[in-house]
Structures are given as structure tokens and as C-alpha cells.
Amino acid sequence: MIAKQFNATRATANPGTQLLMCCYGLSVYLETPREKRTGRLPAILVSFLIFFFYSVTTALDTVYMHDTFQRAIDGPQSILSAHADVGVNWTRFLSPMCVVMFMALGDAVLLYRCTILWSEKRWVCTPLYLLQLACVALGIRSVIPGDVHSEDSNRLESARTFISVSVNVLATTYLATRLYQQDRQRRLLFQDHKDDTYRKIARMLIESAVPPAVFGVVYAAFTMIPLDLTSQRVHATLALKLTFSFLFFSCTLAPQVIIFRVNTGRTYLRRDEGPTGVSTDLVFAHSRPIEHSVLVEGSWGQEGGRTSSIEKDYEVDSDQKAVGMETTRTL
Fold this sequence. Notes:
Number of helices: 13
Keywords: Membrane, Transmembrane, Transmembrane helix
Order of helices and strands: HHHHHHHHHHHHEEH
Largest sheet: 2 strands, antiparallel
Distance between the termini: 34 Å
Number of domains: 1
CATH class: Mainly Alpha
CATH topology: Rhopdopsin 7-helix transmembrane proteins
CATH architecture: Up-down Bundle
Radius of gyration: 23 Å
Transmembrane segments: 41-60, 93-112, 124-144, 159-180, 201-222, 242-262
Helix content: 55-70%
Structural class: mainly alpha
Number of strands: 2
């Protein structure tokens, strides 16, 4: 019931924001030449899928709460009985399944990035895969009909939130560690190397992971607190649960923001015959030193082992500008 109340309040906010980012990212993708679109189409599709599942669960929960409050004619104390009167129907199953889907998609984006960056040691990502499977299993279990206000239901929701936060934090740690390792190796190889692309990518990932981690832990903690409608503190407890529920689930915008920045920041175009496209170069399409051409030719792989999955897709034009194509695949 708490989650559904939250979904009803966000009905006109987050889906609209996501739709704006999805459509703008698609417009940038369509204006990009075909040879520059490599790896961007999956990101566009994931972005629209997250928006679709998010919007469906919001719409269904809004209708559900409308029907419930129509029956709650005797004030807050009658909400639970009104919830029972609404009964279990197909929306009771579809709405939480959509929640499971869009949260799983956001975590899957993180897992995909880890798989790409740790391609030489994929066994390192095994804990992430197991945690993700556990999170999906708990999400499916929550769809099974039961008393949504029971103590077991609260524990289930709390456990799923903790696991989701763990996947987010652990995956971001893996990604940031790998990126800083690559940056350190490049700085050792080129003493005068001043490009900080990897560090900026790592900071962007960390920034997107901190809010859901903090709000998720607090929300999971409040979920474990049983809601006693006869208590004098019921209104304060309910307000805190709703607040952190709103903040945590609003953080599903994090993967959308990353995909949005990837789609708009990596498609900076400068054609000789016309003006630039609508996209701009955030950080990854600026001028780079001449040694980047050495990375592209493969000397990095000769001196430091296998060619890094990040460097191997960099393309250098006549002005020695590198456009990071790998970031599109990894982010």
C-alpha cells in the first residue's frame, strides 16, 4: 500500500521526465551518421523499456489508489478494509511485475558495464550475478498474493531493497576500480598524459550510485518497522516511509540519466559542410594528445598486455580528436 501511494504521487513527474530524456536521446541518435551509431541502439531501447515499465506501474497504481480511496469513506482507519474490498485482480500482479522489470533493467545495465570492463576476469562479477538473481527472485515472490501489510511482506520488501542496493554499490565499486586502474596505467605509460576521461566516467558512475544507495538503505530500514495504525506516531512513520520510498524509487532515473548523457555526449558531430548537431561534447570528445594514436595502433597492448576494452574502440580523426565509442558500450 505504501508503494502504491508513492506511485500515485509521482504519476505526473518522473514518467514525463523520462519521456523527455528518451525522446531527446532518440533524436540525437537519428541525427547521427550511421557509421557513428555503433553500440547506441541497445541503450536507446533500454531507455524506452525502463520508461515503459515505469509508466505502466505508475498508471496501474494510480487507478488502484483511486478505487481504494473511493471505498475509504470512514477516514484513514478504513483504508485497510477498503484495500481488501478492492480485492486481487490482474493489476495486483502486473504492477509489481513492472516494478521488478524496470529495477532489473537498471541493475542489468550495471552488470553489462562490469562484464565489458572486466572481460578478462569475468569471474569477478559472479557475486553480482548471484545477487541480481536473488533480487529478481524476491521480486517475483512479492507478486504472489498475500497480506501486503504482514510482517513477512515487510521483511521481503526490505530484503529486496537491501539486495538491490548491494548490487548497485558493488557494481559501481567494480566499475570505478577498473576505470581508475586503466587511468593509472596510462599515466605510468605516458608521463605527460593529462587526459582524465576515465576519472570523469568513474565520477559520473559514483554520482549515480550514491543517491539510491543512501535512500535505499533508509527506505529498507523503515520498511522493517511495522505500521501500527493505533499508534500516535503513525502519521510520522507513514510520512517518513513515503518520503524515502519516493526518493529511492525516484532514483530509477539514475540509469536513464547515464544513458541520456551517453547518447547526447558521445555523438558530438562537426561536419565541414554544415553546423554541428544538437548534441554537445560533455567530456569525452575534446582534443587529445598525439599519444592517443599510439593506443589506437595497439602499442598499449604490446607493452601492457592485452589491449584494453576501453581504448580499442577510440577513433582518431585528422585533427587528432578522439571520440570515445567504447563509453557508449560500457555506459
